[in-house]
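SEQUENCE-TO-STRUCTURE ENTRY
===========================

Subject: a protein chain together with a token-level encoding of how that chain folds.

Sequence line: the amino acid chain in single-letter code, read from start to end.

Question of interest: how does this chain fold, as expressed in backbone structure tokens?
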Amino acid sequence: MSILASLNSQLGLWFVLGGIVFLTVGVIGMGRQHFKNHRNIFTALAVLLIPLLTLAIMFVASVEIVVYAPMFPMRSEITQVSVTSTSPLILSVDVKAITSRDTAIEGANIMDYNDDNRVAYCPVKPFIELPAGSTKTLTLNFNTTLPSGNYLVRLSSWGSNHGSSPFTIP
């Protein structure tokens, strides 16, 4: 991290903390005029609740930004999935790069068919490089056994989207 980026993040933190302090002091200053009989209780509640609520709102907003942010661009697609073994689960996955940019595949997730829950994960070590325009067949050993049913396999990597493909375990 460069010195400028570090300074900017520290400065941003000080602005946030300063803003919370100024908001708290302002609310206390205005509120103490209206709560003459209960000034100390109002002050204590304001000092506790305003920073907590502000930080909670910021946390919820940041989670929503991450959850609803646009997906990374699609870099490859899964063209075929074959179940090689069911105990343990081993899949043969054909992947085709669909962009002019090289990418890496770092792991694979097995999701339930509704795409709600991850039921298995397979890290790929070392990472598999997928050159632009190429096609590769991956053998993924999940070291687990899953019951019969319909599933989705999704390849993963940071900063790239590889899509998903359905498959069935007989």
Remarks:
- The mean pLDDT is 87.
- The first helix runs from residue 3 to 34.
- The radius of gyration is 25 Å.
